């Protein structure tokens, strides 16, 4: 039986990183964003339980045509869950790759406490929209592409109500950023931490920890019950950081891609 929390988080994840183009037929959700990030250019097979092999094969054919019209590879975001065993078997038979294993980490909010707030006035700047400085730093660390791709990414970010945090270095230059997505109407009242990125020359100075601390504190003040975030299974340093911030693993997923033509990044 599927974990109700994970099913809720799956839906919140979709809302927190909304693709500008999508087709939702009540079963599979097809998402496209001009190739910017895997998540926004993949199928979310939302209602797999009870699907027959024939219906899955038909859904796969329809998805293949949908992405082909957009000149995108067919990629599915498949969660590690018994619900998707039959689908994984079908994808294995079709030679789909397994890539970008990603962990879903969660933590409860707890009551907001003064001692949880970041120390120092102005230490972390928090705003309701991403500034140009915020975008430039995040894209320089995590982005793939130029101005056109960044414009698509900005549309994805601003497609969900969010808070954006920024920390500056000793010279006042942006050193680290992060985003707290707060999907409207979230059934479990959770916020998602995304786009936590630090300039390479400013790493291991505690900037990312302050970003997380500030966003969690702001979320708790807003009454959120808890938080989730996504991290690549291979990123040991980030996993340690999030563990120290109170997060623990609740699930994971893979991207299953047919005949890969190009590598799309993003958890």
Describe this entry's structure for a reader.
The protein has 2 domains: 4-102 and 253-257, no CATH class; 106-251, Aminopeptidase. The chain has helices spanning 4-16, 53-69, 85-93, 132-142, 147-157, 207-221, 236-244; strands at 21-24, 28-32, 43-45, 75-79, 97-108, 125-127, 162-168, 174-181, 190-198, 226-232, 248-257. β7 (162-168) and β8 (174-181) form a beta hairpin. With 267 residues, it is an alpha+beta fold. The strands form 2 sheets. The protein has an 8-stranded mixed β-sheet. It has a 3-stranded antiparallel β-sheet with strand order 1-2-3, with helices on one face. Helices cover 32% and strands 27% of the residues. It has 7 helices and 11 strands.
Features:
11 strands, 267 residues, 32% helix, Aminopeptidase, alpha+beta, 3-stranded antiparallel beta sheet, 2 domains, single chain, 8-stranded mixed beta sheet, globular
């Amino acid at each position: 039986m599927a974990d109700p929390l994970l099913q809720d988080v799956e839906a919140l994840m979709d809302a927190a990183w909304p693709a500008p183009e999508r087709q939702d037929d009540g079963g599979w959700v097809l998402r496209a964003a001009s190739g910017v990030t895997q998540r926004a250019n993949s199928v979310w097979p939302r209602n797999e339980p009870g699907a027959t092999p024939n219906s899955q094969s038909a859904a796969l054919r329809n998805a293949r045509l949908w992405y082909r019209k957009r000149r995108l590879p067919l990629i599915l975001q498949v969660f590690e869950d018994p619900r998707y065993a039959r689908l994984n078997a079908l994808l294995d038979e079709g030679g789909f790759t397994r890539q970008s294993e990603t962990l879903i980490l969660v933590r409860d909010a707890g009551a907001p406490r003064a001692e949880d707030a970041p120390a120092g006035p102005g230490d972390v700047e928090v705003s309701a929209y991403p500034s140009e400085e915020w975008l430039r730093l995040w894209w320089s660390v995590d982005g793939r592409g130029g101005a056109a791709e960044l414009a698509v990414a900005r549309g994805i970010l601003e497609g969900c109500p969010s808070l954006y945090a920024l920390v500056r270095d000793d010279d006042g230059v942006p050193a680290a950023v992060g985003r707290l997505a707060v999907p409207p109407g979230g059934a479990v009242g959770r916020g998602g931490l995304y786009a936590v990125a630090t300039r390479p020359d400013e790493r291991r100075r505690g900037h990312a920890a302050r970003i997380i601390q500030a966003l969690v504190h702001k979320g708790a003040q807003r009454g959120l019950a808890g938080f989730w975030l996504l991290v690549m299974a291979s990123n040991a340093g980030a996993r340690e950081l999030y563990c120290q911030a109170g997060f623990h693993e609740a699930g994971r997923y893979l991207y299953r891609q047919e005949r890969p033509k190009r590598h799309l990044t993003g958890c």
